[in-house]
Amino acid sequence: MPTRTRNTDTAERILDVAEELVQVRGFNAFSYADVAGRLGITKAGLHYHYPGKAELGEALIARYSRRFADALAAIDSADTDPPAKLDAYVSLYTDVLSARRMCLCGMLAAEYQTLPAGPRGAILAFFDDNEAWLARVLEQGRGEGSLHFDGSPADTARMLISGLEGAMLVARPYDDVGRFEKSAAALVATLR
C-alpha cells in the first residue's frame, strides 16, 4: 500500500511540473529531462508513470479537464443567474493568467498540428465540453431575458471561448491581467 501511494504521489508531482511547463512554455518546448530535473528523479522514473510524451499529454489534459469540470459544477451549484455564471467562468481564465500561466488546452491548441493524436482528441473534448456548458448557460439566460444575443447558443459559446482564449494570448506578452479583464468584460457585456 505505501508503494502505491508513493507512486501515485510521484505521478501527480510529474503532472504538476509538466502542467506548469506546458502552460508557460508549451508542449513542444519541454522534455522529460526538464521534468526529471525539477523533481530530482530519473527519466526512467518518468517513463514508468508515463511511457511517452503523448501519454503524459493525455494525462495532463484529463486532469485539467476534470478540474475545469469541477469548477463549472461549482458555478452551477452556486445557484446564481446566467450573467453571474458567465462572470465566474471568466474568473477561471483570470485566475490562470494571474498565475502567469495560460489555459493548458489553449496552449496545446496553438501546437495542435504538431501533437500526437491522443492529446489532440482530448483538447477537442475539453473545448466541446466548455462550449456545451456555456451554451446551456446562454440558453438559460436567453430564456430568462438576462442575456441577449443573435444566433444559436452554441455559436455564441464558441465565440466566447475563442474571445477569452485570444484575450489571454494577447495579454500574455504585455504581462497585463488587466488588459485581459477589460477585453473579457467587453466581450461578456455584449450579451447583457
Description:
With 192 residues, the chain is mostly helical. Helix content is 77%, strand content 0%. It is built from nine helices and no strands. Helix 2 (32-39) crosses helix 3 (43-49), helix 7 packs across helix 8 and helix 8 (153-171) runs antiparallel to helix 9 (177-189). It is elongated and about 55 Å long. Mean pLDDT is 92; it is low at 1-5.
Topology diagram in text:
Elements: H1 2-24, H2 32-39, H3 43-49, H4 53-77, H5 82-98, H6 104-110, H7 117-144, H8 153-171, H9 177-189
Helix pairs in contact: 1-2, 2-3, 4-5, 4-7, 5-7, 5-9, 6-7, 7-8, 8-9
Please estimate the helix content: over 70%
Radius of gyration: 18 Å
By DSSP, the count of extended strands is 0
Q: How far is the N terminus from the C terminus?
A: 54 Å
Please identify the structural class as seen in this structure.
mainly alpha
Task: Outline the low-pLDDT stretches.
Answer: 1-5
Largest sheet: none
Give the overall shape.
elongated
Whole-number mean pLDDT: 92
The fraction of residues assigned to DSSP E strands is under 5%
Topology as H/E string? HHHHHHHHH
